[in-house]
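Q: A reviewer asked whether we had any structural model of the full assembly, not just the individual parts. We don't, so I'm hoping you can provide one. Inputs are below.
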Amino acid sequence: MLVDPNPTDPQSRGDQYSSSRRAFMKTTGLTALGALLGMAVPFERNLPAGIIPVALAQDTGMDLMSGKKGLVVLGDRPLNAEVPAHLLDDDITPYEHLFVRMNGLVPQTALDQNAENWTLTIDGEVENPLELTIDDLKSRFENVTSRLVIECGGNGRAFFQPGTSGNQWTVGAVGCPEWTGVRLSDVLKEAGLKKTAVYTGHYSNDVHLSGDEEKEVISRGAPIAKVMEGDTIIAWAMNGEPLSALHGFPLRVIVPGYPASASQKYLNRIWIRDKEHDGAKMTGDSYRLPAYPVAPGTEVPESDMVVLTNMPIKSIVTFPETGTEVKAREQVEVRGHAWCGKGNVATMHVSVDFGQTWQEATLEPAANRFAWQRWRANVTLPQHGYYEVWARATDGDGISQPPLSPVWNPRGYANNIQHRIALVATA
Amino acid sequence: MKHLFAMGTGAVAVLALGAGLALAAPEPDPMTALAGRPAGADPLDPMTALMARPEEGTGGEGNVELGGLPDGPGAEDTFYQCVACHSTEIIKQQRVTDHRWDELWTWMVEKQGMAEPDEETKKVILTYLKTNFSSER
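A: Here is a predicted structure for the entire assembly that you could use as a starting point for your response.
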């Protein structure tokens, strides 16, 4: 794993990224490229003679990591990076502290921030197929701005035992920026949904890791009933700025409450389907859970895997940072955020005695549906020593976060294990 | 799988049996997963003690020439077969069952367009992956 050793020092951060880039160039350097000969992977599309590895490094988006602060890079190609919990303290997650989940390579249009001639096609089970420019979107539909949690379906995967495949996210593949766009439901009303419409299928122009332009990187979707609730948006801005290259320029979907893979970046088409969408990473065991609980390590037949929809109730402790020293017998504020795929966080509790007793935290109202909610608790540690703060959110249906990983699943999704931090109390 | 575990309803267990599910552990006992667990990599971050891969990292540097893959039979074959599309980071992060490695291989070929090497090389690579990035050993 490539860990940023010194997140507060920009100079060393620069060095870190350039040194990992050097390491990367070795990995995909000429010898490795030699091994590609004979494979159907046309890297040539951006290979000016002599500067092969540089062109490849560019495509991963790794260079853009200089704009991120303190993230832990899990992989450089594809680029995946998570955020330590204490850097997620803001109510509105700033760009520099939003996790990065790339399934493929960053498209050239996004790297160039060039949206000229960009259109969004709405077709399939609609009365009037649409082809909308970004200006059409901005001018023909009501513009909305809201804070919406975006969380990778695999956030928490690192805590499943036995291990499950994919990036080993711990707690930081989540954030709550403020998005601006239009309601997908408004656009679909204009297109006129046919009775046969049951699911959306999202498409984009990002590039498959193999460089094969014919190959879909990812194409997921959501049930029509979900997107017609009105919370799902087509966004062009995050925190008041045009979408960045890493987060989907120029357009993306945000399907709040669902695993972030449904929130397609680099969006150029929404195909309305007459059945559950079957694009890349909709099928097999991608973003799916067993239809019934299975013992850890069980292989489940594909036909018994169902699509993961709502993400479970969850919370994190964002302050203090784990390992912080505090004074015994003095009040300390502990705080963080809570969110839920169903949008109904009900209560929040913390424990400083390993789950033996729990005290209720205050929970601030959500800025809007599907925004994460601030919670705060004052804790007093009785004497000097080692303590853990365990945080547990409960949703409106009485379902709360488990102290250990919830039911195991083959690909390690939807892990809402309680977050714990350490506090060291001094006399 | 002769050892049936209590799953709440017999119907589910029968269904699971009927579907021919294979268990990694022959005698499922949830407490075994909790017994004798190593301490986390960072005593001041209690989450590290809950991770599937408690040592956090790849157990040493590995071979820099091979993207940090640990040396051993099949390391080179694995490197050349696998880095065409992605870096070794996604491989080094894994601690999965043998069956999952077989499944991942098939997924890489069928869905991602990986060119299959000859049978012998495939065997060498899968053995290397199951030896070094396993939840079973």
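A: Points you may want to mention in the reply: Confidence is low (pLDDT under 50) at residues 1-20 of chain B. The radius of gyration of chain B is 18 Å.
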